[in-house]
Design brief:
It is built from two helices and five strands. By secondary structure, the protein is α+β, with helices and mostly antiparallel strands. The chain has one domain: SH3 type barrels, CATH 2.30.30.90. A hairpin with a 2-residue loop joins β3 and β4. The mean pLDDT is 91.
């Protein structure tokens, strides 16, 4: 499953990063990792922007981020955890 697939308010664990297409290369993936999107970290998709798409408001740890859909689609997540 990908972070972009989670419903608003859902939490999950980051299981890895994977470029969704050629627009998300190694530099983008490295930047996401530097921001804290690392395997084992809990992530929560708070809400989506206008029209239910972009940007996606995401919390990882105590930090809040606004991600593009492609960036969120590059974050692999697994098994929702307790909110």
């Amino acid at each position: 499953m990908r972070l972009s697939d989670l419903p608003n308010g859902a939490s999950a664990w980051v299981s890895g990063l994977e470029g969704a297409n050629s627009d998300i290369g190694p530099d983008h993936l490295r930047r996401l990792e530097e921001l804290g999107f690392m395997p084992g970290e809990q992530v929560r998709l708070l809400r989506r922007g206008p029209g239910g798409r972009e940007p996606l408001a995401v919390q990882i740890g105590e930090s809040l981020f606004a991600l593009r859909w492609l960036e969120a689609h590059s974050v692999l997540v697994e098994s929702q955890c307790t909110n």
